[in-house]
Specification:
The complex is a heterodimer of chains A (698) and B (101). Chain A has a two-stranded antiparallel sheet. Chain A starts with a helix and ends with a helix. Chain A is built from 30 helices and 2 strands. With 698 residues, chain A is mainly alpha-helical. Chain B is mainly alpha-helical. In chain B, helix 1 packs antiparallel against helix 2 and helix 2 runs antiparallel to helix 3. The mean pLDDT of chain B is 90. Classes of the chains: A mainly alpha (698), B mainly alpha (101). Chains A and B meet through helix 30 of A and helix 1 of B.
Chain lengths: 698, 101
């Protein structure tokens, strides 16, 4: 087969950045660009291989191979077998291209943002980027949950290292610690979930015979017999399969909520802006945050069976989308706005997954990766120009001096706000459309929940449009509000190049999946839908139509496309609503911030709401309060218990034996005569005892 | 006229008691060695008496081994006594208590 070779070298996609990590670490400081060139070559190599792989997979081939068994099980013992493997299906192939593309552009951009700005510690920086890319690519390729978990953790570690890159300043180390701890809190549940899945199914494979989503499907289905392993475990637990699987699903979801910065574990992400801007682009567009959503999509065959968990995902996603969007409305710093928009956009992806829009979520994941990377790199360009001043009140009027940055940034903003025909419009519209039709078609409580989540997502569109264009107008339009903004520093090709690539993608990437156009006019142009719907081999169980069946049979979701008369009307209403709200938001932003030389007063008009939003609904405060007033006293009580009771018992036992032995050892006088006496007396006593019991004296 | 076996046993018991008495009451290491010899010989007397009584030579052969063993034991014992004298300027067993707790 034509695809054999590329499938054989697929692991190299991940290994190349790892090599660049090793090179940057070992000899980076002797190299001309301090490791940057190695990183660019490695990620560009990964990109080439990924694209080749993508083309092969587009041709209908898929691949699943176990590479290395690090704990051998054995049939007879029935013990677990732990392996590393590669799973290449349309989803992972698409994600590999996204990750390696963004990583390559971030490396190039770093030349301008880090090298040209004369930063120190660059080998460490490029080593971090290499390891980060390696972890994420391996995570994407993982064929089982445990391997995914390991690289999930490695991604978290790398983000910690990179967010805290400027470790001599006070902010970054603390932000890095926060990111690490908050995501670790979620990963704790994830780990328990992994153990639970191993215990229940005896396997954590994502695909193929005996993989856990398929076993779960058999266990829940009425036709197929429940696998013996699962039945045995359920008997031990004493729960219904549906209940127990939902618990497992929610546990794994804990890790997703932490990594993808969903409410209430989103607090680490805005602080993570302390890291260098290219790192923010990498974290937010393609790696760290995307990992959570990707994991849900990866094991969607499992989640599709569990309506309760889907409802939780939809609600969390919808709520996060709205909640984060409102906070983005008042922020002062460019990167802070982008941070909240990231949280909000990942909320949309969760909303899509929770409402049965598997393809919509993947689509939004893809377009978001492009336009969010673009916006962050654009922000990085602005930050270079403003001499590292991120305060938007000091900007304004930059569009004349920075044409390339302005145009590409505008493309990204239009995509983020969801204005037709930019990429974000198509994907966000599909997310909302899926939520809408599933919410209308599904009866009972879950239908209401879906509609509620949809309403929150729809409302968030307005805020998205508003904060996006507030950011654009404050940064680029109007009159310069500071000396630096009058005479910005110019940026080089290594900044403009990635911006142009991503700007083009943010403009056109939506055309791969124009579902509304297909539904209204009829041309068969929903390429992503077809791509994510393989029909052959193991990948048929990972396909969009299979998920749609599962979600209908087990989740009770029904899509009612003709709820408002006919399908065309529904499509038009849904798209019109989201586009209208986005335009309304953008228009309001123009009215308030478009030309006003003193824009600050418009934000101040919000009064107490502004301080509420500016302080992020006091989320940090209440989490710190939780830590200091609840967890700390508990920990202190536990410490006291440990010090007094547990240590007391242990010390008491050793004290008693120490004391008694100090007395008993006096028997050992060291005088041979005493020993002989004791020996003789003992013998006499023994004989007497034998005599009495043996009846000699009777 | 053979001597009855009871007399031998009484002799042996007396020898054994004298040996034990010596070990318990004296503190001279050389007297210890002699007392141990007495105890061993009490055992030898028993062996030979029963050997004759049962008409079986095993006991006599065994006592030969005991004698060889006693010789070896004395050789080691004398060595210990010499070291004892060198370290403590005395052969009293009550002096050598430095290796206790």
């Amino acid at each position: 087969m034509a695809g054999e070779f590329i499938f054989d070298v697929a692991p190299a996609i991940a290994v190349l950045p790892f090599v660049s990590f090793l090179i940057a670490l070992a000899v980076g400081k002797y190299m001309p660009k301090r490791g940057a060139l190695g990183g660019i070559l490695a990620t560009a190599g990964s990109l080439l291989l990924s694209v080749w792989l993508f083309v092969t997979v587009y041709g209908g081939e898929t691949h699943h191979r176990e590479i290395y068994t690090w704990v051998a099980g054995g049939e007879a013992s029935g013990a677990l077998e732990l392996t590393f493997g590669v799973l290449i299906d349309p989803l992972s192939a698409l994600m590999l291209v996204i990750v390696s593309l963004v990583a390559t552009l971030v490396h190039v951009f770093s030349l301008g943002y880090m090298n040209d700005e004369g930063e120190t510690g660059l080998p460490r920086y490029y080593a971090g980027l290499g390891l980060f890319t390696f972890s994420m690519l391996s995570f994407v390729m993982a064929d089982n949950l445990l391997m995914a978990f390991m690289f999930f953790e490695l991604v978290g570690l790398c983000s910690y290292l990179l967010i805290g890159f400027h470790f001599r300043q006070p902010g970054p180390p603390s932000a890095a610690k926060k990111a690490f701890l908050v995501t670790r809190f979620g990963d704790y549940f994830f780990l328990i979930g992994v153990v639970g899945i191993f215990a229940t199914f005896g396997s954590a494979a994502f695909a193929g015979e005996g993989s856990f989503p398929i076993m779960a499907e058999q266990a829940l289905s009425e036709e197929a017999a429940t696998p013996v392993v699962v039945q045995n475990f359920l008997d031990v637990v004493g729960m219904e399969a549906q209940t127990w699987f939902s618990i497992l699903g929610v546990l794994v979801l804990g890790g997703v909520i932490g990594k993808s910065a969903q409410f209430p574990l989103h607090t680490w992400l805005p602080d993570a802006m302390e890291g260098p801007t290219p790192v923010s682009a990498l974290i937010h567009a393609a790696t760290m945050v995307a990992a959570g959503v990707y994991l849900v999509a990866r094991m969607y065959g499992f989640y599709a069976l569990l309506p309760t968990v889907l409802a939780i995902i939809a609600l969390v996603g919808g709520f996060t989308a709205l909640f984060a969007a409102t906070m983005g409305v008042v922020k002062r710093e460019l990167k802070q706005v982008l941070a909240y928009s990231t949280i909000s956009q990942y909320g949309y992806m969760m909303l899509a997954l929770g409402t049965g829009g598997y393809v919509a979520a993947t689509f939004h994941l893809m377009t978001h990766a492009f336009f969010k990377a673009l916006l962050f790199l654009g922000a990085g360009s602005v930050i270079i120009a403003m001499h590292h001043d991120e305060n938007m009140w000091n900007m304004g009027g930059l569009k004349e001096e920075m044409r390339v940055t302005y145009i590409t940034f505008l493309a990204g903003s239009l995509a983020l706000a969801g204005i037709v025909p930019f990429a974000g419009f198509w994907s966000k519209d599909e997310v909302l459309y899926e939520a809408f039709v599933h919410g209308l078609g599904t009866a009972g409580t879950s239908g209401t929940i879906l509609l509620l989540a949809y309403a929150m997502g729809l409302l968030a569109v307005f805020f998205t449009g508003f904060y996006t264009f507030r950011m654009v107008f404050l940064t680029f339009h109007g009159e310069p509000r500071s000396e630096t903004a009058k005479d910005p520093e110019s940026v080089g090709w290594n900044v403009k190049g990635p911006l142009v690539v991503l700007g083009s993608l943010a403009t056109v990437a939506g055309f791969v999946n124009m579902v509304p156009v297909k539904k209204l006019l009829g041309p068969d142009i929903d390429f992503l839908h077809k791509f994510l719907d393989p029909e052959e081999g193991f990948a048929a169980d990972l396909s969009a139509h299979h998920y749609e069946e599962l979600i209908h049979d087990f989740g009770g979701y029904t899509a009612d496309a003709a709820a408002l008369g006919s399908e065309s009307v529904t499509v038009l209403v849904s798209a019109g609503l989201s586009l209208g709200l986005a335009l309304a938001g953008a228009g309001l932003a123009y009215a308030l911030y478009g030309y006003d030389p003193t824009p600050e007063r418009h934000t101040d008009k919000l009064g107490s709401i502004k301080s509420l939003l500016f302080n992020n609904y006091y989320q940090d405060e209440y989490q710190v309060w939780l830590a200091t007033s609840v967890t700390l006293p508990l920990a202190k009580a536990a410490d006291t218990f440990d010090q007094s009771v547990v240590d007391g018992v242990v010390d008491g036992i050793s004290g008693v034996s120490l004391f008694s032995s100090s007395k008993v050892r006096r028997i050992q006088t060291g005088v041979v005569s005493n020993y002989a006496t004791l020996l003789t007396l003992g013998l006499v006593l023994l004989i007497l005892v034998f005599g009495v019991t043996g009846g000699w004296f009777a | 006229m053979a001597v009855p076996v009871e007399y031998y046993l009484l002799l042996s018991a007396a020898l054994f008691s004298i040996g034990v008495f010596g070990i318990l009451t004296r503190d001279n290491a050389l007297i210890f060695l002699m007392s141990v010899e007495l105890i061993l010989n009490a055992a030898n007397v028993n062996f030979i008496a029963f050997s004759k009584f049962h008409g079986n030579l095993t006991g006599q052969v065994f006592s030969l081994f005991t004698m060889a063993l006693a010789a070896a034991e004395v050789a080691v014992g004398i060595g210990i006594v010499l070291v004892l004298y060198r370290n403590f300027d005395d052969v009293s067993v009550t002096e050598a208590t430095t290796m206790r707790w």
